[in-house]
Amino acid sequence: MSGRPVIGVTLDYEEPGGYSKYSWYALRRNYLDAVAAAGGLPVALPHDAASAGDYLDHIDALLVTGGAFDVDPSLYGDGARHTTVKLKQNRTAAELALTLGALSRDMPVLGICGGQQLLAVALGGTLIQHIPDTIPDALAHEQPNPRHEPGHAVSVVPGTLLHRIVGATEMHVNSAHHQAVRDPGRYAIVNAMAADTVIEGVEDARYRFCLGVQWHPEYFIDRGDRRIFDALIAACQS
């Protein structure tokens, strides 16, 4: 690798309506800005599962973004689908192909919010389909205040990759999800948790850099958020 590491960033997708009368890709700018601020060269990845390997040939790391949709429960063994679950099948298929391909190459992977949930599923984990129906007295994980403000605190597990990156045992994060990781899988571990026991991050030490966080560090709310992107770029250069 020479020059700035190329970071593939997955896009969101919407059906016709709103912005355009045709189907369209979209992504908040701060995802790309955060990658660039850390020294990476962000490139957007469309939803083409069949071409995942070709895209991976041209990037140095993968960032799987979030969105207002859910991973298909059938992918982690749940037969019934909660009424709140919304699917984007093509997006999930493409992101899963990219994630599995990146892991097979030991390419650095960062999953954010829904991207963290997809990463957990790729690692053999399972998800809670709707937090309010599963966690008694759960925090407001779909926070009512703006996303650029913190919604709650999370405890960072000492000794984890996340802990080494952020250098703290507590972070103040935003929260925009109704699902969460139930079980991180056989080899993955939990690296952060909310006070109500909701899992807020996962990682897998079998890989050079395999990290997922449930919040949106691209808003730079906590000082540790910038360090997450810095660490992604550094992993490309190690």
Order of helices and strands: EEEHEHEHEHEEHEEEEEH
Radius of gyration from the alpha-carbon trace, in angstroms: 17 Å
Low-confidence stretches: none
What is the global morphology?
globular
Continuous helix count: 6
Biggest beta sheet summary: 9 strands, mixed
What is the strand content? 15-25%
Q: Helix proportion of residues, in percent?
A: 25-40%
Report how far the terminal alpha carbons are from each other: 10 Å
State the secondary-structure class: alpha/beta
- Count of distinct strands: 13
Arrangement of strands in the largest sheet:
4-1-5-6-13-12-11-8-9
Average pLDDT across residues? 97
Task: Please describe the structure with a list of short key phrases separated by commas or semicolons.
single chain, 238 residues, alpha/beta, nine-stranded mixed β-sheet, 13 strands, 25% helix, 23% strand
Tell me briefly what this model is.
The chain is α/β, with parallel strands linked by helices and 238 residues long. It has helices at 29-37, 52-56, 89-104, 114-122, 161-166, 223-237, and strands spanning 6-10, 12-14, 24-26, 41-45, 61-64, 109-112, 126-128, 152-156, 170-173, 180-183, 189-194, 199-203, 210-213.
